[in-house]
From TrEMBL:
It comes from Cupriavidus basilensis OR16. This is Uncharacterized protein. It comes from the Bacteria. The lineage of its organism: Bacteria, Pseudomonadati, Pseudomonadota, Betaproteobacteria, Burkholderiales.
């Protein structure tokens, strides 16, 4: 995820945490 912006990566992490 190094190519993705920090904001986008943060959103993905939050979604993954919510799903988990």
């Amino acid at each position: 995820m190094g190519s993705l912006p920090r904001g986008m990566s943060v959103e993905i992490e939050m979604i993954l945490k919510i799903r988990d």
